[in-house]
Amino acid sequence: MCIHVLHVAVVCFVGMSGKLVVVTCGGGNGAHCLAGLAAMRSDIESRVLTLYKDEAERWSAKLDSGMLITVHNEDGSKKTIETKPALVTKDPQKAITGADYIFIVVPAFAHAQYFEAMSPYVSENTVIVGLPGQAGFEFECVHILKAKAKTSAIVAFESLPWVCRLIEFGKNIEILGFKDTLGASILKGKQCNLTRPIIETNQYILGEKPKVRRVQNYIAITLMAKSIVHPPIMYGKWSQWDGKPLKEKPLFYQGIDERQAELLSGVSDECMATAKAIEKKIEGLDMSDVIHVFDWYLNYYSDQITDKSNLMMAMRTNKAYNGLVHPMKEVEPGKFVPDFTYRYMKEDVPQGIVPIKGIAELAGVATPYLDEVITWCQKQLNKEFIVGTSLTGKDLEETRAPQKYGISTLQELFSGDFETTPI
Known about the structure:
The protein is an alpha/beta fold. It is 32% helix and 19% strand. Strands 1, 2, 3, 6, 7, 8, 9, 12, 13 and 16 form a ten-stranded mixed beta sheet that branches. It has a four-stranded mixed beta sheet with strand order 5-4-11-10, with helices on one face. Strands 14-15 form a two-stranded antiparallel sheet.
């Protein structure tokens, strides 16, 4: 895959002729939020595509009575919004045909399934949005959509816009809070001729909050991925485990120790070093959005953290993490062992830190912390992604590392059929 760096002026948001067709892919908390919020706009046709089991049938059966979104405001008040998507289906042709914006709101391991399902029906000038994108989102999208990707734009958000929970499937969703700002990158096919400004239109679909902020290029947002958090903590916690069951589930974030914090900080340092190396080698790039994970916590959870002296204490005293525990399996009543098949490992390694390692490798940056974490994690997953310090493992095809897609030089990430444009 190749990308070209181009700078153009930001365009003001303009009125839309006809209805904007917005498709939400997924059936979880985030998908319910997005589908409901988009449907509030009279000039948006909100559709839902969910391929998981019988979700489409279950949601569609409740569609006539509509959805309720309960929003918790910062002042403690609540408001209830009545809304209703126009269509919920598991038929990709019905959902995708004529779509202007397609939001992928499912875990990273399920992205490929949706790309493959929608590919025959994607039109020219479609915007495909990862909410969030996660590392390697663009590589996989371009690989599966092939020529159609060249006439599309691919947007990746750094995280979900809201903290939300599903009260009743297909019926009632609760928004507990909004992010203040949310970074998004754009990868635009050179044959894409969009007339609507992409960032502003995303803002219109999401609503007033959070403020959507343009990240200059897609590699910066990849190196910002929060998938770096879970694997180092899992490694630090369980690499010396004696195999004996525990009597209770240990705290995850608030149980972090000095070794786990060192591992996480080291991985974050390597992401920053990679960003700086790329900025030096590729003219015109701004990688300043790639900040240390400690600074990220201070930015995003400032009012939740009581001890900001270092990364370990910031995580241990973050009220947003109250009560969150390690993924565990109960092997017998009151006895627990770690669950290495949970998404903290199963997703955040092949679709998280391995693609980041791949980018670092192309940039010529040594990554001893990443190598150590990946080496241990792959053993627990019974996979081989890395051999020594090189991404040459037999299971690399199961990841979203750029090397999987035939990318062998840093320059290939920024030249050819795609543009990173600040639209």
